[in-house]
Amino acid sequence: MTEKSPLEGQLLVATPVLRDPHFFHSVIYLSDHDDDGAHGLVLNMPVESSVRELLRGQEFDALSDVPVYRGGPVNQDKLTFAKLDWDNSKQSFTFENHLSSTAATEAFQKGEDVRAFVGYSGWTAGQLENELEENAWVTHPPIAAVSFTDATPQLWSTVLRSMGPFYELLTTTPRRPELN
């Protein structure tokens, strides 16, 4: 495999070329990327469950109202906590993954953006690079909207619109363009 620059810390934004229903209109924060593969979490697919419904025990009581998202199709029997932070003055985004329940509780009680993710998105060595070459994904640095849960339903179109007129056109593509 040729040496590629790591994409860690970028958003992966699904394009209409990507036909996998697990990733339709998804925006993924790529938390890890190296020669061995990549790992990320879908930021815009909330699930109808709460932490209260998924985890039992006193250690999770303070996290009962943390929003839960479908992180991806891999290991959907696992739940992980992450902290997201957008610094408006620096126009920068930080993402801390695999928080312990104690760390997640402390952050949540401070009013920080803590989310729970069921499963994750993963790629083997070279798989993501191939999907990028096939235009299944576009990459973009994180924008402020990624850290607002009320922006979740529109996150895919918001990120594409922030990339310019060509990408804004992608937001109007029907789910099954071959039927037009």
In short:
With 180 residues, this protein is α+β, with helices and mostly antiparallel strands. It has five helices and eight strands; from the N terminus they run βββαβββαβαβαα. The model has no long low-confidence stretch (mean pLDDT 89).
The main sheet comes to: 8 strands, mixed
**What share of the residues does DSSP label as strand, in percent?**
25-35%
How widely separated are the two ends? 39 Å
> Would you give the CATH topology?
VC0467-like
Mean pLDDT, rounded to whole units? 89
At CATH level 2, the architecture is 3-Layer(aba) Sandwich
- Rg is 17 Å
| Class by alpha and beta content | alpha+beta
Question: What is the top-level CATH class?
Answer: Alpha Beta
Order of helices and strands: EEEHEEEHEHEHH
Protein name: UPF0301 protein G3M56_010160
Pfam family, one: DUF179
Organism: Sulfuriroseicoccus oceanibius
Family: Belongs to the UPF0301 (AlgH) family.
